[in-house]
Write a structure and sequence with these properties.
The structure is a single chain. The protein is an alpha/beta fold. The protein contains seven helices and 14 strands. Strand 2 and strand 3 form a beta hairpin. It starts with a strand and ends with a strand. It binds zinc ion (2 copies). One zinc ion (ZN) binds near residues 30, 70, 72, 172 and 234. One zinc ion binds near residues 13, 30, 70, 72 and 172.
Length: about 270
């Protein structure tokens, strides 16, 4: 056990998808928890952050890194219980396109008549920080490297390096030739690469410019960067469990060590 691990609390893109057809992979939107020897870092606040927050009953200081501010990455934030508990100190970071402040976007999500509790009325101590893409920054318990992703309104990919182990989480990203060098370099030698692979290669052709990759893009990046394990992430809300089983099999024929992220999955590197 190296002390570096990732747990998937929400693996879905765009919109939550509860129902009989998604019970195995899960229907919550993007949220993962990375544990380092120094503590935990939460990446994104889709609805997956809600069950995570229910377990965080003890006062804690931690980082919440928002890869960007699209709905599926922030919609769980108003319902995140640590926000409502005195004693929690939450350092929120975001790597969105910085023409508006992170704080103003989260404030806008929590104002009447859309929501009855204001951001400034939350009992937890919150700090708001912008992350310059391509630079490293520190959160409690971790040092994080970043890379600019190809996504409408921009997004930031994150990397954790601990004791010679490397864990990369890239969402949301449309892989194009212009990004090949920077993304492959960022993922080089990763023990685990968790990647937005929302589409099949056929679906991707219909969604060029939408800001998401296919599982085939993921396999190519993983091969070129010498990644040990590729985890397919940010599933299309229209892709049910049986469909995701087939995606996993198809990707497995292109890259030997690939798995499909599902809620509750926890991996150590
Ligand atoms: Zn998304
Ligand atoms: Zn997005």
């Amino acid at each position: 056990m190296s002390g570096l691990s990732i747990r998937y609390w929400g693996v879905r893109g765009s919109v939550p998808t509860p129902g009989a057809g998604t019970v195995r992979y899960g229907g919550n939107t993007s949220c993962v928890e990375v544990r380092t020897p120094g503590g935990r870092v939460i990446i994104d606040a889709g609805t997956g952050i809600i069950p995570l927050g229910q377990q965080m009953t003890q006062p804690e200081e931690f980082g919440l890194v928002l890869t960007h501010l699209h709905w599926d990455h922030i919609q769980g934030f108003p319902f995140f219980l640590p926000n409502y508990r005195k004693g929690h100190t939450i350092h929120v970071y975001s790597g969105h396109k910085a023409d508006v402040s992170l704080e103003s976007v989260l404030k806008g999500q929590m104002q009447e008549p859309n929501f009855p509790v204001s951001l400034s009325g939350l009992p937890a101590r919150l700090s708001f920080n912008e992350v310059p893409k391509g630079e490293r920054f520190e959160v409690p318990g971790a040092r994080i490297s970043t890379v600019k992703l190809n996504h409408p309104n921009e997004a930031t990919g994150v990397r954790f390096d601990v004791d010679g182990r490397r864990l990369v989480h890239l969402t949301d990203h449309e892989h194009t030739p212009e990004y090949e060098d920077s993304i492959v370099a960022f993922c080089q030698g990763a023990d685990l690469l968790s990647l937005d692979t929302m589409y099949t290669p056929e679906e991707y052709e219909q969604h060029v410019g939408w800001g998401h990759s296919s599982w085939l893009h993921g396999c190519r990046i993983a091969r070129k960067a010498g990644v040990r394990l590729l985890v397919l992430f940010h599933h299309d809300p229209h892709h049910g469990d049986d469909f995701m089983d087939e995606v996993g099999k198809a990707a497995g024929r292109e890259f030997s060590n690939v798995i499909v992220a599902r809620e509750g999955l926890e991996l150590s590197v």
